[in-house]
Amino acid sequence: MKIYYLVTSLEGGGAEFLIPVICEFFIQQGHDVEVLACLPKDMTTAELLEKRNIPYRILSQNGSNRFSSTYNLLKIIRKSPPDLIWTSLLRGAMDGQIAGTLANIPVVSMKHSAFVRPYKKRAVQWLQRLSQLWIADSLGVEQFLETGMKVSKDRIMTWSMFQIPDNVPTSSPWDGQGIFHIGSVGRLHPVKNYDVLIRAIDYINRKYPDIGKRVKLSIAGNGIEEQNLKELITNLNIPNVELLGFRKNVMAFLKTLHLYTQPSHYEGLCIATHEAMSVGLPIICSKVGELQYCVENQQAGVVLPNVTPEILGETFVGLFHHPEKAAQYGYNAKTYIQTHYTRQAFEVQGKAILDRIEKEIRPKFKKRHWFFR
User: Which of 60, 90, 257, 359 meets the CB 3.0–4.6 Å disulfide criterion with 68?
Assistant: First the structure.
């Protein structure tokens, strides 16, 4: 098949960083793939595509007319129509659904988070029917597609995007000595709730000053909230919090930690947390997406229904005082990942999806609209 992988942008983020992985799998299965991005954003993902020789095009520039990407996508399709449009993220999905409907090309959409902004919910629920198949990256997202977006169960398949990386390091469990190193990885964006995480360290410093001297928080990532978070750290005068910026070698960073935290407002699978689990880190996270299942059900850490500076701070202090509990959480986390997220499992799920597209979905789209012939 000739596949256009249509994504909202090439910004650095969990969903965008999966593009090379998925495209490489498609290519290995004998398909031709080109990535089309509605917007460039910070172009962090472009470097990953270039390293793998995966072609890509930008459909419109940041700040341009909303429908310029739709128009340019239609021009590309008219000149060189694909057999399949695979979409990722909301704007990519909408542009793909419009173009696919007009050109009579099947659309498969991937959902990476169990969330849709309330003001977009009605539009998303109406447009979802224009995608012939929806791919959830986890059980949590699968359930959201069915209940939150009203996608019929027969149009949903699940494909977990996480695979155990090669040569995974193992973190050193917290032994109660030295500095208790807490960390997180993600875009510096309001959805990650990092301001509350920083305030949790401030809470510890004020209420438990002796413990505060032995606690350090490191956040790896960049994004639109960077300046606001820097100002917050300065205004609160917190010496034990650092913003590291984007890190290419995430696993090397995770190995330095004793505890991983993800206090996000919403997530899907959350690759970063699964990476942290793979190195044997205990997890403290909010009750969102797949995290509420894999962390809580596998006893890999603590899931918080409500995330406040006080609740986060007290939870950190609890594990600081109980190294044996932190070690057990980390062991459970690593064991779970090794059991469930193999390369074989990834390939089996991916092949099942491609097989259904080729045998069941594509045969229904033989004729092109006259304008696109």
Answer: 60
Q: Which residues contact 296 (CB under 8 A, 6 or more apart)?
A: 303
Contacts of 119 (CB under 8 A, 6+ apart): none
Question: pLDDT tens across 46-84, in order?
Answer: 999 999 999 999 999 998 889 999 999 999 999 999 999
Which residues pair with residue 229 across a beta bridge?
A: none
DSSP 19: H
Nearest-10 Cα torsion for 184, 185, 186, 191: -20
267, HSE (Cβ side, Cα atoms, 13 Å): 28
CA–CA dist 318, 307 (Å, integer): 15
pLDDT at 371 over 90: no
State the residue for tokens 């990519």. Answer: 92
Q: Are 52 and 74 in contact (CB under 8 A)?
A: no
- In degrees, to the nearest 5, what angle opens at C-alpha 251 toward C-alphas 323 and 303? 45
- What average pLDDT does this structure show over 163-177? 91
**Residue entry with tokens 């969990």:** 14
Q: What is the mean pLDDT of the chain?
A: 94
Residue type, 146: E
Distances (CA, A) of 76 to 41, 55, 59: 21, 14, 9
Question: Does the pTM of the predicted model rise above 0.90?
Answer: no
CB-CB contact of 203 with 168 (8 Å): no
- Structure token pair of residue 334: 């690593």
The tally of CA atoms less than 13 A away on the side-chain side of residue 61 is 1
Beta-sheet strands, E only, within 215-352: 215-220, 241-245, 259-262, 283-286, 301-304
* Strand order across the 259-262 sheet: 241-245, 215-220, 180-185, 259-262, 283-286, 301-304
The answer on pLDDT for 36 being more than 80 is yes
Instruction: Quote the tokens at residue 37.
Output: 């991005």
As a whole number of angstroms, the distance between CA 182 and CA 187 comes to: 17
Measured CA to CA in angstroms, residue 163 lies from 156, 284, 341 at distances of 21, 21, 5
Closest among 224, 181, 178, 175 to 201, alpha carbons compared:
181
- Cβ atoms of residues 257 and 171 within 8 Å: yes
The per-residue pLDDT for range 223-282, each reduced to its tens digit, is 999 999 999 999 999 999 999 999 989 999 999 999 999 999 988 888 999 999 999 999
Could you tell me which residues are beta bridge partners of residue 141? Answer: none
